[in-house]
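Study this protein:
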Amino acid sequence: MKKKLVSVILPVFRAVPDYLEQSLQSILSQTYDEIELIVVLDKYDHNIDGLSFAVLEKFKDDHRLQLVVNERRTGLASSLNAGIRFAKGEYIARMDSDDISLPVRIEEEFEVVRKRHFDLVGCWAKVIDELNRSMGYLSPPCEWQAIRKYLLFHNPFLHSTILFRRKVIEVVGLYEPEYELSEDYEFYMRAFSAGFKGMNIPKYLHLLREHYSSMVRGSRWKQNRITNLKCKLAGVFDYHFNTPRDVLYLGITPLSFLLNPGKVLIAKRLVGLYYKKVSPSST
């Protein structure tokens, strides 16, 4: 069977050169090689952007690498939309500029979408710090029933791990900039409301980097919590996820404003705890 093109969208804004290089290399080294890697550079600063261009120059001979440069700072959601508009693939995948994907990630996700007829798939991730040291594990729910059950409790996917069919975008539209910082969560709700279904592969196929300046832990964490609440309100009132459980999860969401995620991260590092610890033998 002829392979289908997968377009991997990787937005870049104020990237750390070493992280960006590792991220690019991990995608261009995938066992599933029928890909195009679309880097969308959101302008920040001449010097910082110059460092990103220097990293991209190292991969200039790989025809699969495509570059889209925003004329002005647009934000993450708009950058993702620019990459999707540029993409030629029947399937769309995500990647972040500071994460690392294991070589089989795209292949395994594509096979699940194709064989099990899901529309969107993600995977579990190991969490690493600034020096690539292991911090723990993230294992969101796998099967569709569990994803739906906890949809209004938390975001059911790790955004930089997902792969989905282009037809999802064609039906429900692109990412919504109004929900910047939680644009993926709102997108999933729209997709599921339209009848699409998803799952997570119960394997650690991705390394997700957590650091103090990340979007959800940096100075914008309160804005992230606000847009997360907006997503849940939309889920209940616009997308009809309104079972008693859904309404309960919406009701307790404001409690999240009491927790500064940066301080939580420090505490977890001090006591040696981070997310759900599981045996590596379960990968």
